[in-house]
Amino acid sequence: MNAVTAPPIHHAGERVLCIVALYAAAFVAAGFAFDSPDRILSGLVEIVVSRDTLTTDYMGVGGIGAALVNAGLLTLMSCLVYWRAGATMNGSAVAALFLVLGFGLFGKNILNVWFIVAGVLLYAKFKRERFATHINTAFFGAALAPIFSEVAFSTYLSRPVSLPLAAATCLVIGFILAPVAARLFKAHEGYSLYNMGFTAGIIGALVVALYRSYGFVPEPVFIWTTGNNLPLAALLLTSFVSLAAVGFFLDPRALAGVGQIMKQTGQAPSDFIGTCGLGPTLVSMSLTGVISTGYVLLVRGDLNGPTLGAILSVVGFAAAGKHSRNIVPIMVGVFAGSLFKPWAAEDPSMVLAALFGTTLAPIAGRFGWHWGVIAGFIHSSAAQSVGDVHGGLVLYNNGFAAGLVAAVLTPVIVAVRRTDKVD
Fold this sequence. Notes:
The structure is a single chain. The termini are far apart. The chain is globular. The protein is an all-alpha fold. The chain is built from 21 helices and no strands. 70% of the residues lie in helices and 0% in strands. The protein has helices at 11-34, 37-48, 58-61, 64-85, 91-103, 114-126, 135-140, 145-152, 159-188, 195-212, 229-250, 254-262, 272-276, 278-298, 305-317, 324-340, 348-356, 361-367, 369-385, 387-390, 397-416. It has two domains: 11-212, no CATH class; 239-416, no CATH class. The model has no long low-confidence stretch (mean pLDDT 92).
């Protein structure tokens, strides 16, 4: 009898998956360059058992080395799941895996994501559909992974109660993610790229409300490291230069393809790999990474786990909606918000709002840069206000806020543009 093998992924898909896996492996290697194996091992244990509510910088919990290794290992494990499922490696898959890599630095770890993924798998089996159909939902949905850590390692409950309760809660969350996300997408019509952030925010708010009614109230966490801008900037820029080099190796005329990408609105669903090719998409991803890193350094922000995670989310979604032309107006809008509101541009919440707020890039791409600036300006306030609703247990706080902004702002834009319409 033949051995069981994974369903075939076409050649181009294998290339995409290998590239992502190589960058994940590079993060693991970089981790060992920062810290000793003993320190990394103890740091990983600290990360796994830590509370992961916003904002928990794994570089402050277990050290830079352990944070990088956690992110790399988690992404490699996720790549294995994608390969085993025979998933289509399109722009959305790349975005999902880069979010795993980024949030592996603050909130997702090698333990807490898997019960949500398993819940999505159970849903696929219930619907008698291939898991590959829902795999992106599973890994995007790991935005709710802190719920597992918060319940499992709660000081309110004994371990024989907290661990099964955490597992059961996340299995249920995973099971309902796909149908809820499909319904809520209609609210913003793809003008916020982080649809799962919007979905996770609403589900998270309900879960937190339920637990609060029984007296279980998540306590706020804020771990934010500073003083590592130089080595982390070097790590990022090396990654982005190599990403562009791979893009040009695959397609010497990649710049022409980047020009084509920048002509697209980015409204979801977008797949720049499918429409413009892998080479141009990798170059465009590297450009957005440089712009995002440059913004953090320009406003004198900190490079750490959360900001690296945010930068990598921009890079990942540069395969599925974001590009250099449509993200800058959002950043400008958030920066403008810092000038007219009681927050400084370098404040952690404002830096994250500027980076994650680029989920609203399709508004700039579809309606013009000036509407992108307005969207960013509004988002700079919205992102500060929604965290209390979900108790910090939703990692995509900005995605939740941006979904609300897009759902309200887009109809207004359409109404005031006499000759325009939503496609």
